[in-house]
């Protein structure tokens, strides 16, 4: 929950400010209960009953048809298309390529620290590190001193700067964060404790 939706324990001033100047939806719906099929549905503008993708174990271009994706439409019309993080579901459901070269001008970027997602980095009361599902962490203590979503953000910012230095370049940048999937490791400075 967010402050803009009435959650008093959450301090979300930037999103709350955005919400004051935006249309705020009260209900959210997805096309499928799993993120992989929902991502394909969103990116192809086809419902899961058309893509026939209901799991993570089949590539939609093989199982349903060679649909044009949103980034592919941009790419086919002269845009440089870049995927950062989890846009298509990685693995078999995107042909182990995140749908490159169909949708993307270059291979998709995935943060190198993703391989540490199950690492024991959560400090416990016993003084040992554990593999908790949710825990605040000190970023500098993380493998390679960062987290996957922070790496994706840095990559996306660099890509935007690179594109903006080329004024005639048309680009489509898709950035997908791995959160809210577990494990939820987040910077300690994001943890705010209220005293009531």
From TrEMBL:
The keyword Transferase does not apply. Its cofactor is Ca(2+). Residues 2-191 form the Sulfatase N-terminal domain. GO terms for cellular component: cytoplasm. Gene3D superfamilies: Alkaline Phosphatase, subunit A. The keyword Hydrolase applies. Belongs to the sulfatase family. Pfam families: Sulfatase. This is Sulfatase N-terminal domain-containing protein. Keywords: Hydrolase, Metal-binding. One of its GO terms (molecular function) is metal ion binding.
